[in-house]
Amino acid sequence: MVARAALALMLLTMLLGGCGLVAEKAPQPTAGPTAMPLTADTVAMVRTAVAAAKVKAPKPDGRDGYTRFARSVYVAAVEPKWSVAATTEVALAQAKAGNVAAREYLTIMVYDIQLLSVMEGVSLSAEDWRAVYVGSGLMSDGVFTGYVALSHGGKVMP
Question: What is the pLDDT of residues 81-99, one digit of tens each?
Answer without folding.
Answer: 999 999 999 999 999 899 9
